[in-house]
Amino acid sequence: MDVAYCALTGMPDYLQEEYSPQSFISDYINRRVSDEGLHWWLCPDRAYEPEVAHQMLYEVCRIFERRNADNLKNLVQMLLADKHSSITFNSYIDVLDHMHKNDNEEDVQMPYGRLVAITAFAGLVALRLAKENLQQTISDIAVYTARYIERGIRKQWPVLHRSWDGFVKLAKGIIRRQKAADDNEERFWGAQKTLIYGAAAVAVFVGIGFWSMRLFR
């Protein structure tokens, strides 16, 4: 669905059924679990084919996860510390309420960065649950996360003129910059590898020369 369609209908994209938070969260959790060769057997069937925004959210969440791996891991461990108690909506929301909030915004907020942080966190929680085959709990996490995100979107996005189209534009920039950073890092390590191999080759030839000199003197 594009901007022209939204302009034609007069309805913001985040109110369209194709862009429901449940579809985004279910899609991300299912893909994140599948990335590790696991399955979420209770994943709801798709009512619509994924939009570009679904792919952008997936890619940006994976970038966020790599950059914040330790912090996210600690949050997951904190949430799942007590294996004998179930994860309730309130206990889960208590964790989300302290994640990635902007100081200059109200209590109920859903900036793009926070949307990404919460989705990435939900994916890691689901991954941990999938390893223990807690299928129903994964479904609970998907519902809790979607409800929480939907509340923030409906309350804040109309006021601050946010949209999934705006998110896609921002996400494309993040992905482009990350790819450039990855390419630079790859070139850097490629250069270091060449230097290491070069130094190793020099050391080998010096060693061979020294050994030859001793043998044939």
Descriptive account of the structure:
This protein is an all-alpha fold and 217 residues long. Helices cover 72% and strands 0% of the residues. The chain has helices at 3-9, 21-35, 52-67, 69-79, 89-96, 112-131, 135-160, 164-216. Helix 3 crosses helix 8 (164-216). 26% of the residues are buried.
Label the CATH architecture: Orthogonal Bundle
State the end-to-end CA separation.
81 Å
**What's the quaternary structure here?**
single chain
Give the number of DSSP strands.
Answer: 0
Number of domains: 1
Strand count, sense and barrel status of the largest sheet are:
none
**Helicity, as a percent range:** over 70%
Radius of gyration computed on alpha carbons: 24 Å
Strand content: under 5%
Number of helices: 8
Weakly predicted, low-confidence segments? 1-5, 196-217
Structural class: mainly alpha
User: CATH superfamily assignment?
Assistant: Blc2-like
**What would the average pLDDT be, to the nearest integer?**
82
- Element pattern in H and E: HHHHHHHH
What name does the CATH topology carry?
Apoptosis Regulator Bcl-x
CATH class: Mainly Alpha
Name the shape in a single word: globular
